[in-house]
Design goal:
about 190 residues, alpha+beta, two-stranded antiparallel sheet
Protein backbone atom coordinates (compact mmCIF):
# COMPACT_ATOMS: atom_id res chain seq x y z
CA UNK A 1 0.00 0.00 0.00
CA UNK A 2 1.35 3.43 -0.88
CA UNK A 3 1.53 6.31 1.54
CA UNK A 4 -1.49 7.93 -0.13
CA UNK A 5 -3.53 4.79 0.43
CA UNK A 6 -2.77 4.89 4.15
CA UNK A 7 -4.12 8.41 4.46
CA UNK A 8 -7.73 8.87 5.52
CA UNK A 9 -9.83 11.78 4.27
CA UNK A 10 -11.30 13.94 7.05
CA UNK A 11 -14.39 16.20 7.11
CA UNK A 12 -14.14 19.97 6.59
CA UNK A 13 -11.95 21.67 9.16
CA UNK A 14 -10.65 18.47 10.81
CA UNK A 15 -7.27 17.60 9.31
CA UNK A 16 -4.94 15.75 11.63
CA UNK A 17 -1.23 15.32 11.11
CA UNK A 18 -0.43 12.96 8.25
CA UNK A 19 -3.87 13.32 6.69
CA UNK A 20 -4.33 14.66 3.15
CA UNK A 21 -4.87 18.39 3.27
CA UNK A 22 -7.00 18.43 0.12
CA UNK A 23 -9.61 15.99 1.47
CA UNK A 24 -13.01 17.59 1.91
CA UNK A 25 -15.85 15.09 2.44
CA UNK A 26 -19.21 16.78 2.25
CA UNK A 27 -21.73 16.81 5.07
CA UNK A 28 -25.07 14.93 5.21
CA UNK A 29 -27.10 18.07 4.39
CA UNK A 30 -25.27 18.45 1.11
CA UNK A 31 -25.85 14.77 0.28
CA UNK A 32 -29.56 15.07 1.08
CA UNK A 33 -29.86 18.20 -1.11
CA UNK A 34 -28.09 16.43 -3.96
CA UNK A 35 -30.35 13.40 -3.56
CA UNK A 36 -33.44 15.60 -3.75
CA UNK A 37 -32.09 17.36 -6.84
CA UNK A 38 -31.22 14.08 -8.57
CA UNK A 39 -34.52 12.30 -7.88
CA UNK A 40 -36.20 13.17 -11.18
CA UNK A 41 -33.03 13.56 -13.24
CA UNK A 42 -32.38 10.49 -15.38
CA UNK A 43 -29.75 11.61 -17.92
CA UNK A 44 -28.72 8.10 -18.83
CA UNK A 45 -30.87 5.06 -18.23
CA UNK A 46 -27.87 2.79 -17.57
CA UNK A 47 -26.14 5.19 -15.15
CA UNK A 48 -27.67 5.75 -11.72
CA UNK A 49 -27.95 9.35 -10.49
CA UNK A 50 -24.68 10.27 -8.80
CA UNK A 51 -23.79 12.66 -6.01
CA UNK A 52 -20.46 14.06 -4.86
CA UNK A 53 -19.35 12.89 -1.41
CA UNK A 54 -15.80 14.30 -1.29
CA UNK A 55 -13.52 16.74 -3.09
CA UNK A 56 -9.73 16.53 -3.26
CA UNK A 57 -6.94 18.68 -4.67
CA UNK A 58 -4.81 15.65 -5.57
CA UNK A 59 -5.69 12.48 -7.49
CA UNK A 60 -3.87 10.19 -5.05
CA UNK A 61 -6.10 11.47 -2.21
CA UNK A 62 -9.24 10.72 -4.25
CA UNK A 63 -7.84 7.28 -5.02
CA UNK A 64 -7.15 6.73 -1.30
CA UNK A 65 -10.77 7.62 -0.51
CA UNK A 66 -12.10 5.06 -3.00
CA UNK A 67 -9.61 2.52 -1.64
CA UNK A 68 -10.95 3.20 1.88
CA UNK A 69 -14.52 2.66 0.64
CA UNK A 70 -13.49 -0.60 -1.01
CA UNK A 71 -11.57 -1.85 2.04
CA UNK A 72 -14.61 -1.10 4.21
CA UNK A 73 -16.85 -3.34 2.12
CA UNK A 74 -18.59 -0.56 0.17
CA UNK A 75 -19.52 -1.66 -3.39
CA UNK A 76 -17.34 0.65 -5.48
CA UNK A 77 -18.47 -0.68 -8.88
CA UNK A 78 -20.42 2.49 -9.69
CA UNK A 79 -18.08 4.94 -7.93
CA UNK A 80 -16.42 7.63 -10.05
CA UNK A 81 -13.39 9.89 -9.63
CA UNK A 82 -14.03 13.00 -11.71
CA UNK A 83 -11.30 15.52 -12.59
CA UNK A 84 -12.39 19.16 -12.92
CA UNK A 85 -10.85 22.10 -14.81
CA UNK A 86 -8.63 19.94 -17.00
CA UNK A 87 -5.52 21.42 -18.53
CA UNK A 88 -2.87 20.06 -20.84
CA UNK A 89 0.70 20.11 -19.52
CA UNK A 90 3.61 19.53 -21.88
CA UNK A 91 6.90 18.62 -20.20
CA UNK A 92 9.88 19.46 -22.42
CA UNK A 93 12.46 16.66 -22.22
CA UNK A 94 15.27 18.15 -24.29
CA UNK A 95 16.54 19.52 -27.57
CA UNK A 96 15.89 17.49 -30.71
CA UNK A 97 18.29 17.19 -33.65
CA UNK A 98 18.73 14.78 -36.55
CA UNK A 99 20.87 12.36 -34.52
CA UNK A 100 18.35 12.15 -31.68
CA UNK A 101 15.47 11.85 -34.13
CA UNK A 102 17.20 8.89 -35.79
CA UNK A 103 18.02 7.34 -32.39
CA UNK A 104 14.47 7.66 -31.04
CA UNK A 105 13.08 6.34 -34.32
CA UNK A 106 15.49 3.40 -34.27
CA UNK A 107 14.49 2.58 -30.69
CA UNK A 108 10.79 2.61 -31.52
CA UNK A 109 11.38 0.59 -34.66
CA UNK A 110 13.48 -1.97 -32.79
CA UNK A 111 10.65 -2.59 -30.29
CA UNK A 112 8.17 -2.99 -33.11
CA UNK A 113 10.63 -5.27 -34.93
CA UNK A 114 11.02 -7.38 -31.78
CA UNK A 115 7.26 -7.85 -31.56
CA UNK A 116 6.97 -8.79 -35.24
CA UNK A 117 10.06 -11.00 -34.99
CA UNK A 118 8.63 -12.94 -32.06
CA UNK A 119 5.35 -13.44 -33.89
CA UNK A 120 7.14 -14.57 -37.04
CA UNK A 121 9.44 -16.90 -35.10
CA UNK A 122 6.43 -18.70 -33.67
CA UNK A 123 5.00 -19.50 -37.11
CA UNK A 124 8.13 -19.76 -39.31
CA UNK A 125 10.10 -23.00 -38.82
CA UNK A 126 13.42 -21.27 -39.69
CA UNK A 127 15.90 -20.36 -36.91
CA UNK A 128 14.19 -18.58 -34.01
CA UNK A 129 17.08 -16.31 -33.03
CA UNK A 130 17.90 -15.32 -36.61
CA UNK A 131 14.29 -14.40 -37.33
CA UNK A 132 13.97 -12.28 -34.18
CA UNK A 133 17.32 -10.49 -34.64
CA UNK A 134 16.61 -9.85 -38.31
CA UNK A 135 13.25 -8.28 -37.49
CA UNK A 136 14.79 -6.11 -34.75
CA UNK A 137 17.50 -4.79 -37.12
CA UNK A 138 14.98 -4.28 -39.93
CA UNK A 139 12.65 -2.40 -37.54
CA UNK A 140 15.48 -0.24 -36.17
CA UNK A 141 16.66 0.77 -39.66
CA UNK A 142 13.17 1.69 -40.85
CA UNK A 143 12.39 3.39 -37.54
CA UNK A 144 15.49 5.58 -37.90
CA UNK A 145 14.51 6.47 -41.47
CA UNK A 146 10.96 7.40 -40.46
CA UNK A 147 12.27 9.33 -37.43
CA UNK A 148 14.51 11.40 -39.71
CA UNK A 149 11.69 12.00 -42.19
CA UNK A 150 9.30 13.11 -39.43
CA UNK A 151 11.89 15.49 -37.94
CA UNK A 152 12.78 16.94 -41.35
CA UNK A 153 9.08 17.46 -42.15
CA UNK A 154 8.68 19.60 -39.03
CA UNK A 155 11.60 21.77 -40.06
CA UNK A 156 12.84 24.14 -37.40
CA UNK A 157 9.32 24.74 -36.05
CA UNK A 158 9.75 22.16 -33.31
CA UNK A 159 13.31 21.25 -32.40
CA UNK A 160 12.59 19.74 -28.99
CA UNK A 161 10.93 16.57 -27.72
CA UNK A 162 8.34 16.54 -24.97
CA UNK A 163 5.72 14.53 -23.14
CA UNK A 164 2.11 15.69 -22.82
CA UNK A 165 -0.20 14.92 -19.94
CA UNK A 166 -3.61 16.05 -18.69
CA UNK A 167 -3.94 17.52 -15.17
CA UNK A 168 -7.03 18.53 -13.20
CA UNK A 169 -7.28 21.29 -10.59
CA UNK A 170 -9.53 19.19 -8.34
CA UNK A 171 -11.06 15.72 -8.13
CA UNK A 172 -14.43 14.67 -6.76
CA UNK A 173 -15.53 11.22 -5.63
CA UNK A 174 -19.07 10.43 -6.75
CA UNK A 175 -21.30 7.55 -5.71
CA UNK A 176 -24.92 6.62 -6.52
CA UNK A 177 -27.06 9.00 -4.48
CA UNK A 178 -29.00 6.21 -2.78
CA UNK A 179 -25.75 4.92 -1.22
CA UNK A 180 -24.18 8.32 -0.46
CA UNK A 181 -24.94 8.27 3.28
CA UNK A 182 -23.15 4.96 3.78
CA UNK A 183 -20.14 6.15 1.80
CA UNK A 184 -20.03 9.43 3.69
CA UNK A 185 -20.13 7.58 7.04
CA UNK A 186 -17.18 5.41 5.97
CA UNK A 187 -15.12 8.42 4.87
CA UNK A 188 -15.88 10.31 8.09
CA UNK A 189 -14.97 7.33 10.32
CA UNK A 190 -11.76 6.53 8.48
CA UNK A 191 -9.98 3.21 8.99
Amino acid sequence: MTQAQNQTPQPHGRHSAGQPSGAQPLDRDHVQQAQAANTGDACFAATPPMTTIAEFSDYSDAQAAVDLLSDSGFEVGATRIVGHDLKSVEIVRGRMNYGKAALFGAGSGAWFGLLIGLLMAIFVPIGFLGTVLGAVVFGAVWGAIFGLIAFAAQGQDRNFHSQSTIKASSYTVEVPFDRARAALDILNKGR
